[in-house]
Amino acid sequence: QVQLVESGGGSVQAGGSLRLSCAASGRTFSRSSMAWFRQAPGKEREFVAALVWIGARTYYSDSVKGRFTISRDNAKNLVYLQMNSLKPEDTALYYCAADEALFPRAYSDSAEYEYWGQGTQVTVSS
Fold this sequence. Notes:
Blueprint: E1 3-7, E2 10-13, E3 18-25, E4 33-39, E5 46-52, E6 57-60, E7 68-73, E8 78-83, E9 92-99, E10 115-116, E11 120-125
Parallel strand pairs: 2-11
Antiparallel strand pairs: 1-3, 3-8, 4-5, 4-9, 5-6, 7-8, 9-10, 9-11
């Protein structure tokens, strides 16, 4: 099993940056695919970024491509989401997700991820 705890959220003005962290525990972390999703009030949870274990490829939603970067440190069992040039529409509760057997093409489907953190709030003001 994998347990996930997010941190690093907060309030920032538009154009600013934040780095979210996801601390993972579990023996299979290094072989798990990791992702970030977000959910704004009144909206469905949406895919943000993923790092698929097979091939170590990264994927991003069109709305964050070029501004956000997902990375991992297997030695520290951490996954990061570096968020630059933040916009008010990035305001949401951000979740870390993991799966030990993710089918690579399913990286953006939240139903494919078995493990989830509790979320960390990101608020971007204009």
